[in-house]
Amino acid sequence: MKKKTQQSKRKKRSISGIGLVDLWSAQCAECFKWRLIPTEEEFEEIRSKFSEDPFFCSKKPGVSCDDPADIERDKTRTWAIHKPGIPKTPSGFKRTLVMRKDLSKMDCYYDAPNGKKLRALTDVGKFLDKFPDLKKSVSPADFSFTGPKLM
Length: 151
Hints:
Layout: H1 2-13, E1 24-27, E2 34-37, H2 40-49, E3 80-81, E4 94-99, E5 106-111, E6 117-118, H3 121-130, E7 149-150
Pfam families: MBD, zf-CW
InterPro entries: DNA-bd_dom_sf, Methyl_CpG_DNA-bd, Znf_CW
Protein name: Methyl-CpG-binding domain protein 4
């Protein structure tokens, strides 16, 4: 019974696509082992600064490059690799990735604080025009609709 409930929730959250990100990970810039990242927020922090501050195993408490990888890249799951430099999602917004039904790519959208879905930079501009007080802390440059590359 518990499995069905989780599957139902998963279907509702994925909207029109299938599948959700179930694990967040980062690859060590030194040993190239994959390390699980406990939360999406922590992953976004690492992802947004990866070019200027690469991830290393030692950034995880009690972990070193000598330890086995947390997860191995294999064919048991679909891997989605982000481009470096995607900005951290602005506070109050939620970045969501949805796999297309044909498994060809992942679409990205943002849930705004008022619940509106933003699917493109033009949506962000219109949203910020309606809520000018947010323009002080959020700009269109804080959003990227670039989806990860599927592996």
